[in-house]
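Researcher: We're teaching a course module on how sequence relates to structure. For the next exercise, students receive a sequence and then see the predicted structure as tokens, so they can try to spot secondary structure elements on their own. Here is the exercise chain.
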Amino acid sequence: MTYDQLPRVYLFGTGGTISFFAESRTDFANYSYSGRQLTIDEMLARVPEAKALAEVIPEQVVNVGSTEMYPHHWLTLAKRINAQLSDDAGAGGVAVTHGTATLEETAYFLNLTVRDPRPVVVTGAMRPPSAMGTDADNNLLDAVRVAAAPQSAGRGALVVLNNEIQAARDVTKTDSYRVETFQSGHLGFLGYADSDGQVVYYRRPERRHTVDSEFDVSAVAELPRVDIAYAYAGAGGTAIDALVADGVGGIVAAGLGSGGSPSTFMAALQRAVAAGVPVVIATHVGTGRVVQTRRFVEEGYLVADNLHPKKARILLMLALTLTADHDELQRMMLEY
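Model: And here is the predicted structure for the students to work with:
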């Protein structure tokens, strides 16, 4: 892909495997132990080919492993991206480097809170830049390529690894070590950042996002607390009761199958609803919808549709910044 005038892409670094640097080229597991991390400038310097794709402007936002990404980091990053895009009307897009453990969560948060149609592309790596066969450099190059491509606009936040472009809403990490770990289940990925240098799309997300979102975090200092309760055979209600007692703002139940769970677990969720805590029923099976069954409706639950529990949590956190109305919360669950 070539341009008469290079687009401007802002590259925000947050850390993760894509930044860690081990002492050995065969270290694929312990590379974070020494704590040595490349800065975003150092990462970009490893990929001079990016200069042919865009005028890339790097900025380090944080530099942590993705297990240390917290909601306040999401707010910082979203506000920084919104401010930069607002200040630079001529910018082509934004790329973000991130650790893979929480990458899908940060990407979905940006999908809901970046108030601009220009591309926001999140990437990471499964193998650190110090390792043989690292995917770090290629993923960084692809992220810049996709962020610079005008056809990437209007598709919400995107996730790019392994030459595949995924919708932030749909994608999830599915394997602990394989480079093809990010998948979008039944829905599939959106397109390719391919070996011929092209950015090719075959579909676009249908749910509300970015410029069509009603969530404005510009004045939000802290997100409401929402936790996830995981169901399993014989699950009781101790953890759920403890969350309510601790003042949780909302609960996402990662239920079995189509959302139903053991009666002891569901009884605790009923106590949470009675205490005024919004409860969203999701499923941890990986794909498929949770629908508004008679029982779920009569017992006052919200349903997550096909959102994974972690993403239903993010949506509920943002929804609670606007309203506690049950019907409005359910509307948002179905629209985003």
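Model: If you want an answer key for the exercise: The mean pLDDT is 97. The chain is about 30% helix and 20% strand.
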